[in-house]
Amino acid sequence: MFRKNIITSALFLMVPFSFSVNAEPMTVEQRFELLEKELRQTQLELKKYKEEESKRRSLWVHDASAQVSTKTNAMEAASQPKASQKPEALVVKNTEKSANGNEAVYSSMTLKDISKFIKDEIGFSYSGYYRSGWGTASHGAPKSWAIGSLGRMGNEYSGWFDLQFKQRVYDDGEKRVDAVVMLDGNVGQQYSTGWFGDNANNENYMQFSDLYVTTKGFLPFAPDADFWVGKHGAPKIEIQMLDWKTQRTDAAAGVGIENWKVGPGKIDIALVREDIDDYDRSLENKQQINTNTLDVRYKDIPLWDNASLMVSGRYVAGNESSSEKYNQDNNGYYQWKDTWMVGTALTQKFDAGGFNEFSFLMANNSIASNFGRYAGASPFTTFNGRYYGDHTDGKAVRLTSQGEAYVGDHFIVANALVYSFGNDIYSYETGSHSDFESIRAVVRPAYIWDKYNQTGVELGYFTQQNKDVKGDKYNESGFKTTLFHTFKVNTSMLTSRPEIRFYATYIKALENELDQFAFEDEKDDQFAIGAQAEIWW
User: What's 325-337 look like in SS3?
Assistant: First the structure.
C-alpha cells in the first residue's frame, strides 16, 4: 500500500509541470505550494508505515532498549540489522477482540509463564537427577572403596541418573489421575563409548524402575491420599552421604496408599510383588520364587517443636510352588525364609536451618544379612539380585544418625553415623551363624564463603568385625580424607543442588579380611583428584 501511494503521488506531481487541461496555467508559487503539500503527505505516510513495521516487530520480541522516542532513532533502528537474542517474552493472540472489534488483542507471555502453563494446564512435568565427573589417581585408574562406610565425597566414579515423566490425564477438581514413568540407570565414565547393552563390568544399564498410575479422590475414606497402582514401591529414605537406604522396598508390581491422614500423622501402605531368584549351592542354577511384601509406615507424627516421628514395619512372605519346595529339599537350592524389619525414626529440624534424623531398625533373616554388609547396606532381601544362604532366626540391629547443622554464620557440618550389630545371622562374607559389629562415621565440616562457595573436608572412618561359626574373627577397616571446594546455589550440603565439586582424596585400607580389596598395583591406599557435578531438578 505504501509503494502504491508513493507512485500515485509522484504521478500527480508531474501533471502540473507537464500540461493543464481546461485550466489556467499555474504560477511557480502555486506549484511549489502544491509540491510542499504532497511532500508533507508523503512524510506522514512514511511515518505511519514505519510505526506499523515497528509494531509488527514488537509482537515477537520485547526489548526495552529497542524502544525509541524520536524519529531519528526510529530510522536508525529500522536501517540496522537486529542481533540474534533470546526473547524475553512472546506475544500471544487472545480470543477476544479489541474495543473497536476489528483488531485482535495481544498479550505477552514469558518463558516462565509457558512452563507454568505446560505444568498446570497441560499437566506435564519432567524431573530428574544425575551425577558425573572426572578423576585420576596415583596408581592407575581411580577406584571406589567402601562408599557405604567411608562416604561418597571424592570416592565415586559412576554416572548414575534418574529421569521421571509425569502426565496428568484427568482432573475435574475432585478426582485426579496421573501417569508416572521413571527411568534410571548408569552411564559408564571409563570409556568414550557407553552403549546400553554393552554392559561390560556393569558399566552401562537402564531400567524402567517405575511405571504406575497415581490418583486422588477415588477412595471415600481417604479422598486426599495418593492411591497408586503399577510398578512402584514405598518411598525410599536414604543416608545420602553413604549412598544407601534405611527404608527401601523394590517392586515388580504393586498397589498402595501414601499420605493417608489418620489421627495426628499420615499412613503409607504398599503391597508389592518382589520375586527373587533362588540359587542352588553352586550359585549357578536358579529358580524364581514369588514373594509379596507388605510395607506399612505411620509418619509425620508431631512431637515437640519441629520434631516428628515415624514408625515402620515390613514383612516379605514367600509364595512357593510344590516344584520349588522339592528343589529346596532335594536338589540343593537354598531354603526360602520369610523376613521382616521394624523400626522408628525421629526427625528434628533446627531453627537456624538444617536437620537431624535418628533411626532404629531391627531385622531378621536375609534383611539382617544386608545389615551386616560394610559397603552398601540397603535392606534388600537378596545380595546383588541373588537369594542364597542358610538363614537362621538371628537378628540384626542398626542405629543411625544423619543430618546437617549450621554453626554460626559461616560454618556448616554434615554427619552420617551408623552403629550395627547382629547375632547368629547369615553373612555373605563369613557364612551361616555369624556375628558382626560395625561402626561407621563420616563428618563433613565446611566454611561458607557465600551462597555459591564452600570449602571443607570430609573425614570418614569405619571398622567391622565378623565372627564365624568356628569363632574365627575377620576385620575390615579404613579411613578417608577429602579436601574439597564446591560451587553451589545455596548453603545446604544435603538439600541444595546443583553442586560442582573439586576434590583431592586419600583413602587407606587398614584391614581387608572380609573382601581382600586392593587398589591398582595391589596397593592398600590411593590418592585421587577430580571434579564432579551433581544435579536434580
Answer: HHHHHHCCECCCC
